[in-house]
Write a structure and sequence with these properties.
- The protein is built from 16 helices and 31 strands.
- Helix 9 (300-313) links the parallel strand 13 (284-285) and strand 14 (318-322).
- It is α+β, with helices and mostly antiparallel strands.
- Helix content is 23%, strand content 20%.
- The protein folds into two domains: 7-60 and 95-182, no CATH class; 208-648, 3-Layer(aba) Sandwich (Rossmann fold), CATH 3.40.50.200.
- Strands 12, 13, 14, 17, 19, 21, 22 and 27 form an eight-stranded mixed beta sheet that branches. It has a four-stranded antiparallel beta sheet with strand order 1-3-7-8, with no helix packed on it.
- The two termini are 44 Å apart.
- Helix 1 (66-74) packs parallel to helix 12.
- The structure holds 2-acetamido-2-deoxy-beta-D-glucopyranose (NAG) (9 copies).
- The site of one 2-acetamido-2-deoxy-beta-D-glucopyranose has 10 residues, from strand 25.
- This is Protease S8 tripeptidyl peptidase I.
Length: 650
Amino acid sequence: MTRIISLTALVAALAASSAARPSPHTHVVHEKRGAISARWGDAMRVRPDADMHVKIGLSQSNLHRGHDMLMDVSDPSSENYGKFWTEDEVHDMFAPSDESVSAVKHWLASSGIHEIRITHSDNKGWLAFIASGNELENLLHTDFYEYVDSETGDKAIATEQYHVPKHIQEHIDYINPGIRLPYLRKRGAEARSKRSSISKIYKPPQTRPAPKFGPMSANTTGCDKLITPDCVAALYNIPPVSVTPSPNNSLGIFEEGDYYAQSDLDSFFTRFPSYKIPNGTAPTPAFIDGAKAPQQYAGGESNLDFMLAYPIIYPQNITLFQTDDSYYAAGYSEGFFNTFLDAIDGSYCTSCYAGECGNDPKDPVYPDTNSTSGYKGKLMCGTYKPTNVISVSYGGAEDAVPQYYYERQCNEFMKLGLRGVSIFFSSGDSGVASRNGCLGNSTIFNPGWPASCPYITSVGATKLPENRTVTDPEVAANDPAGHPYSSAYATGGGFSNIFGIPDYQADAVANYFEKHNPPYPYYNGSKLGENGGLYNRSGRGYPDVSANGDNIAVYVNGESSFSGGTSASSPIFASIVNRIIDERIAAGKSGPLGFLNPILYKNADAFNDITEGTNSGCGTDGFSTAPGWDPVTGLGTPNYPKLKEVLLNA
Ligand SMILES: *[C@@H]1O[C@H](CO)[C@@H](O)[C@H](O)[C@H]1NC(C)=O
Ligand SMILES: *[C@@H]1O[C@H](CO)[C@@H](O)[C@H](O)[C@H]1NC(C)=O
Ligand SMILES: *[C@@H]1O[C@H](CO)[C@@H](O)[C@H](O)[C@H]1NC(C)=O
Ligand SMILES: *[C@@H]1O[C@H](CO)[C@@H](O)[C@H](O)[C@H]1NC(C)=O
Ligand SMILES: *[C@@H]1O[C@H](CO)[C@@H](O)[C@H](O)[C@H]1NC(C)=O
Ligand SMILES: *[C@@H]1O[C@H](CO)[C@@H](O)[C@H](O)[C@H]1NC(C)=O
Ligand SMILES: *[C@@H]1O[C@H](CO)[C@@H](O)[C@H](O)[C@H]1NC(C)=O
Ligand SMILES: *[C@@H]1O[C@H](CO)[C@@H](O)[C@H](O)[C@H]1NC(C)=O
Ligand SMILES: *[C@@H]1O[C@H](CO)[C@@H](O)[C@H](O)[C@H]1NC(C)=O
């Protein structure tokens, strides 16, 4: 969205009136605004000769077909299974069509705005031109007003609704200036404060000091107290690496605002000598928009991710998608994930969706003028190739960002799936709640973002309870506050309020409701909390799968300690899939597996079904595990040999 700095000179002394202009019957209302904040007072009509910088976002083509196209390459029963698309093929399929471009240009020309005045973005995403106030009002059959934020003095131009010709409507995503007003800024010190408690980052629920662990020979005694690499291998029957890893299959790991420390990795490698990981082993940098790692003092997340992944995949490499310069990564931005997606898909930088063309005002702006040490380069677009597998241990609540913001990202995960990328997200550490609590009167379950996107594999957490061995069943991770972490922790799961139940899990979800109906009222229409309901019976269920996420041995800032969270589960599962891709390549097959859920749900017996435990939250016990898929541990934990057989023969 274009930022408007000072427009006072552009405004005529006319107060806003709500009288809607008549429009010809050939035209339709394209966008209409709802109520706005009382802070936007004193709206004045824009002057006829004011310069208006207009941007027309063009609709992506074929987005509504994206789901079916993804299933066509991801469903093992499809004849196109595994026939992934190139980056250009994906781009061409969804880019606004030439027909859209010419239809909109033709409309503009016939309204007196000739082609020579129009700038067209590289990937067809939008058209831009400068028009006078009068011209734009006539074009859109509306009146424009300049609004002033009574608290900050910020100004913005907008209208209540605008019209376009009927035959043009399908080609246009949105027009700016249009109905949108910018996010209301806070003032002074408040404006510079960090992301609030709606923080979107899962961190391990606080590492805790543990009995020091010394060098260990391979063994699985004590896995009920401390999960070492040997315990992970034993739980999921992961054999030692036996094929030469492919140079084209580095494991992708995303981090933001949290950094690994090399000395901690080295201490960890030294503690587990049987994995023969030499000191200095470090991820391959794919640093985005000024991000840098390692740093001297580690965060709990990055160390945890690498300490779990390396023992599973070494000597395969890890590619570290460290994102955002230190200013934005520290939380001085409400947006999340968009700069990462820009960096691995150039077309994401300018594609339009639901009124957003490229990044949102919530996202970091580069070059970064906010901080002297900030990244002064241009926003990275398509700088890196996505890896075959990407693990992300970050997320928040579905309602932490606007719905269009989340949907645009979820569509992007669909496009990455078409290109053969397998994406794993932690399911969250707050059970049926989210980090920022519950919905409605704090009783309605709050699903996770991006955990509930139907085009990613969401990974929940399990735990090996005290006195059990690695051959005993695990349970859903659910620890009350103080036992052992300072805050309560339960593996995230539930049902989306945004996305419907995808076909690949429809039978699994129906089976759960039929045989293990949760003891809570639910809603299934568009009204949150209808009938006193606590969850959306028609939403996408998550997680899809799970892996251990409790009592994990780590090294942080020179100390051995325990950590946990679904933050651990995602890299474990992703590492296993990465290993299997290496096995495929070694067997002479094409490597990438793309979006995995369709094949995983068809092969539930490749998992250790978890049938004990719940995911408490919102003052309830949450959902219960059950035989088969459940919204606590998904299909269960991986059984490497079985999963390998399924995915090697796919
Ligand atoms: C096995 O691992 C446990 C910790 O999980 C450790 O206390 C013990 O010393 C190890 N045993 C051997 C023989 O290394
Ligand atoms: C891992 O990275 C190192 C350093 O770039 C390289 O020498 C090695 O060949 C890579 N290994 C694989 C399996 O790609
Ligand atoms: C790696 O990928 C490149 C192209 O991206 C290809 O030329 C090469 O053969 C691949 N190497 C292996 C071992 O698959
Ligand atoms: C590896 O690094 C660790 C931690 O700094 C250190 O204790 C250990 O002696 C090093 N090992 C070698 C072989 O240098
Ligand atoms: C960053 O700077 C721009 C102008 O340079 C300002 O509009 C914006 O509010 C600042 N953002 C933050 C998060 O400080
Ligand atoms: C919210 O919960 C409180 C305490 O149970 C109750 O008194 C109040 O009426 C509820 N409000 C709504 C809007 O349901
Ligand atoms: C585990 O076993 C020990 C020793 O037999 C016993 O004291 C403890 O209560 C057991 N813990 C649980 C959770 O069963
Ligand atoms: C429940 O899920 C359905 C399907 O995605 C959706 O259409 C509906 O709006 C959701 N209800 C609420 C209240 O979010
Ligand atoms: C939606 O919920 C209502 C009441 O809880 C129930 O009668 C209806 O059958 C449900 N519909 C679906 C499609 O689940």
